[in-house]
Amino acid sequence: MRGIKQITGLLLALILVFAAAGCIRIDRPEDSAAESKTESTAESSAESMAEPSAANVSTAAQSSRETEDKEMQAKLQQVQGEWYDINGDTMLFIDGDQVTFRFGTYEQVFTVAVEQRGVYWFLVEKNGQDLGFISDIEIRDDGSLSAYEMVLDADGHDFHFVREDQIAEERRIVDLSKDMPKQIESTEIRDFTLTFSTTAGRSYNLDDRWRGAHYSWSIEKQSDGTYWMTFSQGYDSYMGIQFSDEVSNDYVDGLAAKIAEMDLAAHNGYYQQNNVNLPGYYLYVKYESKEKLTIQAEGNAADTCVFDLAELMEYVFLLVDTEE
Predict the structure, then answer these.
(1) 159: nearest Cα among 132, 137, 130, 141
(2) Which terminus of the chain has fewer CB atoms gathered within 10 Å of its CB, N or C?
(3) To the nearest whole percent, how much of the chain has pLDDT over 90?
(4) Residues of 112-130 as b/e, b for ≥16 C-beta within 10 angstroms?
């Protein structure tokens, strides 16, 4: 019996020694409670750092909306007043969120809002409808407004609105001509191109058959020495004359002679334009000698042609007239 007591005492002593050394952990109720509280506090802190509160999200969203509203109001304030289309006679007047379009006797009023699409800003109909015959109006970085005419079966008008005091500068014709030789020695054409339009009230002295269309005439020398000619007459919603065929060397030589007879080289390098969006004319001839002839005009500078375009066109009509 005494031996058992001695062994028991010895075991208790060993347990106390190991516990003191940390080899055996004795969990107490108060320790578990403390650990639970510590873990709960740590988890709450982590969650608080990982996810913003609903209040913070709401405040950030409200601040973003307020900033956007201020930008929209600034854009709307920026476009107040009268605007004039340099490409035509349309005028618009912006008063608050009311836009009035005036064209001749036509007048219509729309209520608009400012809308941002990517980096671009637009005036749009406030109730999600359209602005009648015109697209949404872009507020451009250069201080102008732009839009286009919405039509299905024709080329629509491009609107470029500026302030009244900017009209003269936008329509001012500038001379971009280059100093090019005023004589062409070669009589052998390699490439020929002529484009022009008899729209926008222009006629260039052509008769009524050729009014209101866009024209493209080209001749190109092929690798085998033959010439291929194309000619097209295009209206807004349909094609008129279309010619595409090989032409003789004599025909091309006759064209070179016609160009020389009209002394078109006297205008070589001519180039004038303004910012009005109207089709121009363009003549380009490249010769076997590598000599070049270029004559062009754009915008209102093309209202009249610096050479007799009707006379030059008589030469193409020798062929294309017989196609109709």
Answers:
(1) 137
(2) N
(3) 64
(4) bebeeeeeebbbbeeeeee
